[in-house]
Structures are given as C-alpha cells and as structure tokens.
Design goal:
single chain, 363 residues, alpha/beta, Rossmann fold, 7-stranded parallel beta sheet, 6-stranded parallel beta sheet
Length: 363
Amino acid sequence: MSRATVALAVTGHGYGHAVRSALVAEALLRRGARVVLRTEAPRWLFPADADWLERPGWDIDIGVVQHDGLDMDIDATRARWRSFLGDFDHHAEVEAQLLREAGVNLLLGDVPALAFSAAAKAGIPSFAVTNFAWDWIYSAWPDFDEVVTQIRASYGQAEALLRLPFHAPEADVFSAFRRVEDVPLVARVAQHSREEVREQYGLPADARVVLLSFGGFTANLLDLSRLARWKEHVFVATPPLVHEGQPAPDNVRILNPPATEYVCLLAACDAVVTKPGYGMVADCLANRVAVLFTDRGPFREYDALAHALTHLGRAVYVPRADVLRGELGAHLDKLFGLNTAWAPLAMNGADVVAERVLQSVTI
C-alpha cells in the first residue's frame, strides 16, 4: 500500500505553532504517513523521522516582526508584507512545484497564507489548523488592507479549518474559510514526574519553583538581580531568555534542558511567568501549572488566551513593568492563594487532526 505524504507548512512566528504542529506530525507518522515540513521554525522542534522541503530563498510566512518576547514591530511587519506581496504569485508557483516534486498528497497549514495558494496551484487539497487567522490579526492594524485581502483569498482555497480551542468568539475571526470544524486541544503532557525532574536539575523538592518563559525570545530589560528579594521562591530561566554563565542571584537557576524535555521542566514548576501564546497556555493547562501572565501589545489573540487561562486554570495578570523590574512577590502570593478548580480538557487534538487529514488523502 502506498504511503500518504502530508506536507506541514508552519509559520515561524514564535514556538507555539511549531510545537503543536510537531505533535500533529508525530500523530501522522504513527499512522504510517510520510511527513514533509516547510517552515522556518527550528528543526529540533520537529520529529527526526519527518522530511523537509527545500527552502527556496524566502520565508513561508511573515508572521509578526518581534525584537524580543514582549514587543512587536507593526511598521516592520507591514513593510515586510508589502515586499512579500510583490512576489506572492511567483513564490506560490515555486512552492507548488516543490510540493509536486515531493509527491505531496495533501497540505496542512498552521497558517501561512502562501501555503494554501501553493497547494491550490499544485492541485492538491489543503486544510488549515489554528486558533486564530492572520487576516483577523492584521485587520486590527492600520494600512494592512492589501495584505488582508491576499490572505483571505489564500485561506479561501483550503478545504476546511480545523479550529483549535482558545479562539475568539467573534463571527469574523474565521470568515475567510469555507468550512470550520472544531478539534480538541493539541498540547504536550510531561512524561516524567515532578520529583524526577526536580532531582535531575537540582531544584529543591519543597520549594516554590517559578519558570520564566517568553516563547523562545529574549525579554530585554528584564532585571534578574531584582528577583533576589523573593528568597522564598526559586526562579528558573532558560536560553534564549538568558545565557549559561550569566550572573544571577542564588535563587535564580539558569538551566538549558533539551527541547524535548522543556515541558517536563515546566510541569515540575509551581508557576510560570510568561506572555500568553497558544503553546504556553495549552501546556500550562494540560499540566496544571499556575500562570502569572503579562500583556503582549496589540495582538488580538491575547484576549482569548487570557480568558482561557483565568477561566480554565489558575492565573493572575501582572503588569509588564512589574515583570521587568522583578516586582513579582505580591503577584505570586495572589496566584498561589487561588484554589480555582482546573477544568477537564480533551487533549487528543493531534490524533483527531491526523485522522481527519488522512481521511481526505487520495493516493
């Protein structure tokens, strides 16, 4: 029997899209499919058994230009998209040829517009999987009209959107897609116990351990030295937020776990200080880790993710200025004082997506 070949096209924006797409890739591989990847996200995030499409000299997606984990550059994002639009059709033709040469039967995108146009030109079906769409994000920003028009045209070529949880409820969020099908949460669950992980990394078994995490970015102006005041907590930071050997107070541990073990480190902590992104929200809810979250600028996905954190788990908002100054003590006390019940969540989204996609493959 011939193997189905599924292309996964993934935006390189942050780590959340890549992490959930990697889980879907694993689910497809378990079912005997061949998976080929087209993304600028780091290779180490994805299964070693997946193949890779040639990178033709441009990114599959623009996403949002960010200089660190908290600040977006809307003007730079607009400028990159305007340049990208000028070559969009040519890029789609080249991407389509890459799909044909790789023998791809179906494309699954999270959610670069170029990928769906390429799939249409290659004559193969495509599906989207996401909790937000780029046209909806950009439509809230000035002078993105041409960009939004192109993205909506591209999204309209997908067979359907497989919609993840933590999406905004407004009717216009996914209006570009022909059909919307809801799927469960795609999230990582730690495979090692809290006790094992704390022993492995030398973290005290009885301490309140707090992870600092900003989605694979640095956090400029974060003053680690100010965390020394909160001696009742042990803080953990990892690259690229910090670097090994960087001076830090005694209660701040700089660790560099393998990428595959990051979720185990997260699950071994009592809380995370972060900005809400799908990957972090999903992992914290799946592993029942409390969250101290700050804002991330004018990004429309934020409200839906903040709502999920505060209504499905245990979470408290902290102003960005307090995060950067290390003023976390009172906020952590409030967070650890919560006794909100954790909501039960179906977490088999990767398997559901893989099954749905493979049902639509024609070999």
